[in-house]
């Protein structure tokens, strides 16, 4: 083998050997692996321990990672996600990107950068890390909170904004060389790029579905995978030949394949390769960081990192305020999106080729970006504490209305699926209620439907007082924000010591803390699912509803202690055993094919054959209790049976199966008295 081939193999082995333990360690620490890859690149790169010195090889592999990254973005692009995000996507994301780009560009111009460079720096700063933020929110079960939904909508817009930003890079590069940006040059360059993309898109759209269909018909998984790789790399090469980037072509290929019914299968096949090559891309970015530059300029870099984080936090907070989100949710979203995103590295890599960033400026960007990414997990973890302290310092209006608009009503905090179902039930039973919500779209829709919904943050005392907490009978927290719920429970209990507080939470580990704060009852979703499962299992064993209800009460006793592995006292254990040992009742409807049709209870002699007793028979809606021995069974009769679990199973089997079993059970020993007839 040639030396170059040995070098490539060596670098690949090193990268594989490094990627696996980094992914494992960061997974155990519940931190995004992306941060680990960046740090790893710094440590093993030519400016660190110099384990890898041939960075050209890594850069070529990283290019493949960029192509696959944009390809899967195109594959996962969904109009449904955009429609679902609504105002958060269009207004929130658009406003945030424009604000951040403008603010950073203005600051860059003050430092004597050209307009083209200033706009480019604005692009870099406007993007946040989708991988890090969604990973942290997912682990913390905050994706469904107000700030989680807002952050997701903005991140989705940022990911889509990468495409027009990349289209503008050649324009900015030409303008930077000429020293001026003219609207005509921007429009012409964009027009050429868009025209080329449209031509490629339309041509591929005619050919790709046909190819996919023909290959899928062969039922050959290897051929399908090879075709997908060919389409990805081939489209990337075509767009590159037209003067655009490889990444844009890959995005276009993903967009085309996303319309086919095979897209989910293709995503599953391509993800392992994308993750590996994407990890190489982020390691290669880390390798670009010069440790000597960091050590020489660390005060400046820390200042830039802090300034950028504060600027982005402030602008996202302003964006959220425009969308009428509460201050707390706005601040949490702002802190979460304070970092520089992974696509910023992609833009920086492309921008360097057009002369938009180089030298110490590039180093400052790399250092600042990595620092913001490393800090993000810790910022997100500390954000609720910071927001809660801020809420406590913020003066609230303690003035309460002299007369509540409602008395003895229920307050529903959160109008998601749970809140909507509860509101529907309360409305049907004519129980007065009011709803608190912060999502403007949800509020507008609910008001159109006539719901008594109020805009307000549940962590504000004046909002809770306006909702009538001092006069309410029950408040139900149907939201996913654990931190906000904790703070709100304190306020509610202070406003109304006698109110019944019902809380929905995700995890049973949060039950004790919420009850200690003043919640009367906490419903943990992860255990309610298990309760539903075991109740249905007990039903299949003919355990009656009242016994199942008792089991559920026991499981919910003192905050799911049974399911959480906490020992119950002997009295509870004895009660549990007695309930299971008790006789149970079950119903059985006579079907046309049953062997018992046309036979009397005396002929069947169910008690002797199985041990179970017929205590009633329902016919045509009328119940005959303690039926006599000559009572003949008809189709559609419903028999009410009493007995232990095993006895009930035998009785039902006897009634259904046939005479061979009936004969063995009868034996000619049927008693004729009324008292015995009642035993069936």
- Separation of the first and last Cα atoms: 90 Å
Mean pLDDT: 79
Strand content: 5-15%
> For the CA atoms, what is the radius of gyration?
34 Å
Structural category is alpha/beta
Tell me the number of strands: 10
Approximately how much helix is present in the residues?
55-70%
Lateral strand order in the biggest sheet? 3-2-1-4-5-6
Q: List low-pLDDT spans.
A: 396-402, 659-680
Outline: globular
The main sheet comes to:
6 strands, parallel
How many H/I helices?
Answer: 29
Explain this structure.
The chain is an alpha/beta fold and 680 residues long. α2 (33-44) packs parallel to α12 (263-287), α8 crosses α14 (327-336) and α14 packs antiparallel against α16. It contains 29 helices and 10 strands. The strands form 2 sheets. The protein has a 6-stranded parallel beta sheet with strand order 3-2-1-4-5-6, sandwiched between helices. A 4-stranded antiparallel beta sheet has the order 7-10-8-9, with helices on one face. A hairpin with a 2-residue loop joins β8 (613-619) and β9.
Keywords:
single chain, about 5% strand, alpha/beta, 6-stranded parallel beta sheet, 4-stranded antiparallel beta sheet, about 675 residues, disordered C terminus
SSE layout and pairing:
Blueprint: H1 3-28, H2 33-44, H3 55-76, H4 79-85, H5 87-110, H6 115-126, H7 130-139, H8 146-178, H9 183-217, H10 221-241, H11 246-258, H12 263-287, H13 291-322, H14 327-336, H15 342-353, H16 359-393, E1 410-413, H17 417-428, E2 433-437, H18 440-448, E3 453-455, H19 461-466, E4 474-477, H20 482-495, E5 500-505, H21 511-517, E6 521-524, H22 525-540, H23 545-556, H24 570-581, E7 584-589, H25 601-604, H26 606-610, E8 613-619, E9 622-625, E10 638-643, H27 645-657, H28 659-666, H29 674-677
Parallel strand pairs: 1-2, 1-4, 2-3, 4-5, 5-6
Antiparallel strand pairs: 7-10, 8-9, 8-10
Helix pairs in contact: 1-2, 2-12, 3-11, 3-12, 5-6, 5-8, 5-13, 6-8, 6-15, 7-8, 7-16, 8-9, 8-14, 8-15, 9-10, 9-11, 10-11, 13-14, 13-16, 14-16, 22-23, 23-24
């Amino acid at each position: 083998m040639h030396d170059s081939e040995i070098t490539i193999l060596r670098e690949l082995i090193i990268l594989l050997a490094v990627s696996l333990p980094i992914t494992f360690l960061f997974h155990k620490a519940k931190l995004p692996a992306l941060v680990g890859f960046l740090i790893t690149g710094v440590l093993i790169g030519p400016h660190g321990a110099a384990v890898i010195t041939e960075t050209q090889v890594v850069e070529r592999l990283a290019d493949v990672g960029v192509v696959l990254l944009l390809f899967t973005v195109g594959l996962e692009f969904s109009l449904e996600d955009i429609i679902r995000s609504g105002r958060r996507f269009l207004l929130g994301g658009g406003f945030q990107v424009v604000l951040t780009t403008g603010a950073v560009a203005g600051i860059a111009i003050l430092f004597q950068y050209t307009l083209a460079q200033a706009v480019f720096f604005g692009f870099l700063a406007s993007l946040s890390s989708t991988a890090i933020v969604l990973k942290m929110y997912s682990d913390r079960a905050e994706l469904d909170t107000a700030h989680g939904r807002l952050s997701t909508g903005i991140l989705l817009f940022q990911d889509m904004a990468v495409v027009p930003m990349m289209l503008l890079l050649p324009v900015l590069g030409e303008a930077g060389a000429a020293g001026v940006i003219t609207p005509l040059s921007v429009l012409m360059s964009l027009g050429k790029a868009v025209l080329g993309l449209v031509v490629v898109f339309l041509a591929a759209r005619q050919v790709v579905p046909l190819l996919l269909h023909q290959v899928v018909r062969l039922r050959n998984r290897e051929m399908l995978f090879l075709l997908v790789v060919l389409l990805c790399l081939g489209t990337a090469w075509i767009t590159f030949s037209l003067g655009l980037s490889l990444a844009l072509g890959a995005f276009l290929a993903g967009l085309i394949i996303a319309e086919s019914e095979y897209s989910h299968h293709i995503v599953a096949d391509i993800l392992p390769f994308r993750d590996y090559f994407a990890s190489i891309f982020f390691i290669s970015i880390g390798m670009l960081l010069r440790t000597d530059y960091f050590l020489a300029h660390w005060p400046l870099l820390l200042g830039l990192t802090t300034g950028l984080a504060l600027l982005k936090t402030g602008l996202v907070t302003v964006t959220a305020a425009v969308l009428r989100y509460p201050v707390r949710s706005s601040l949490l979203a702002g802190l979460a999106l304070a970092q520089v995103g992974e696509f910023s590295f992609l833009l920086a890599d492309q921008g360097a080729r057009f002369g938009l960033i180089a030298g110490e400026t590039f180093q400052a960007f790399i250092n600042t970006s990595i620092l913001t990414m490393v800090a993000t997990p810790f910022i997100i973890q500390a954000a609720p504490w910071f927001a809660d302290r801020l809420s406590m310092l913020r003066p609230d209006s303690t003035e309460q209305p002299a007369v509540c608009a409602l008395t003895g009503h229920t307050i529903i905090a959160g109008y998601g699926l749970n809140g909507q179902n509860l509101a529907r039930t309360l409305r049907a039973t004519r129980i007065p209620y009011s709803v608190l919500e912060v999502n403007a779209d949800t509020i507008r829709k609910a008001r159109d439907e006539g719901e008594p919904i109020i805009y307000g943050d549940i962590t504000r005392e004046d909002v809770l007082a306006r909702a009538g907490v001092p006069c309410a009978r029950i408040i139900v927290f149907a939201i996913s924000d654990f931190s906000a719920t904790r703070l709100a429970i304190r306020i509610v209990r202070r406003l109304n010591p006698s109110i019944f507080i019902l809380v929905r939470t995700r995890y049973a580990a949060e039950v004790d803390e919420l009850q200690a704060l003043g919640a009367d009852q906490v419903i943990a979703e992860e255990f309610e699912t298990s309760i539903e499962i075991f109740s249905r299992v007990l039903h299949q064993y003919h355990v009656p509803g009242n016994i199942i209800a008792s089991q559920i009460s026991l499981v919910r006793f003192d905050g799911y202690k049974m399911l959480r592995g906490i020992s119950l006292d002997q009295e509870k254990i004895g009660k549990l055993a007695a309930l299971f040992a008790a006789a149970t009742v079950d119903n059985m409807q006579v079907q046309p094919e049953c062997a018992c049709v046309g036979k009397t209870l005396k002929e069947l002699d169910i008690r002797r054959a199985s041990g179970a007793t017929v205590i009633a028979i329902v016919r045509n809606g009328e119940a005959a209790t303690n039926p006599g021995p000559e009572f003949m069974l008809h189709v559609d009769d419903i028999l009410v049976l009493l007995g232990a679990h095993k006895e009930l199973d035998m009785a039902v089997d006897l009634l259904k199966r046939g005479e061979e079993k009936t004969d063995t059970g009868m034996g000619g020993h049927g008693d004729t008295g009324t008292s015995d007839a009642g035993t069936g």
